[in-house]
Amino acid sequence: AQVVRKAVPGVEVLGAVVLNHGVGGLNPLAVEVAARAGARFVWFPTVDAANEARRMEKLPPEKRPQWAGLMEALRKEGAVPEPIALLEASGRLRPEARAVLRVAARHRMVVATGHLSREEVFKVVEAALEEGVPQVVVTHPDYPTQALSLGDQLVLAQWGAYLERCFAPSHTGKVPWEALFRAIRATPLERNFVSTDLGQPQNPPVEEGLVLMAKRLLEAGFDEAEVRYMVVTVPEKLALGGAR
């Protein structure tokens, strides 16, 4: 992020850290260092989440994303540890996860849930709010590896979490567009926002994703003010550290 800011004056790029094995998993020190370097966001595990690994194992090889095959091969070679679970046998959140949340709260970072299971998502959101994290994002709750019910999404929104609605899963057929629109309508609009989840070579460029998503929302009957709120207003709050 710092390199891009220097290379392109006038463009503000915000840093982030994702708690996969590459940074030590549930590593509060990695979050501390990232925060001091200017990172604004912290994601809980994605490709290394135990929930994600379990779900991928059930898919035939041809249905798995490219990265899933890579991670499976690395694990078989012993290059990476076992997938990361957030809960102890008792169902309590692991101390390392809560330590991460304390660091994020102290630095006023946005915490996103990553590719966790339903139970883990609820525990992380609950603990994040207890620890004083200013803004919490439920990462693509509609995605097949999360697949949170509308009732679950409503509860999380009522707790104060933001619900991330991504372009790529619907564009690639993993989440039907109508299911995505129905989820937005079933939850408070002010707790929803739009992102792209793009960056894959076979998909549209990242910079086009928000425009394409906005068009889809307008075609589905959302008005311009609602679309602007989800595409601009909430992301701006998250980026600038606005009130929860």
TrEMBL record:
UniProt-listed InterPro entries: DUF6282, Metal_Hydrolase
The protein, known as: Cytosolic protein
Organism: Thermus islandicus
Organism placement in taxonomy: Bacteria, Thermotogati, Deinococcota, Deinococci, Thermales
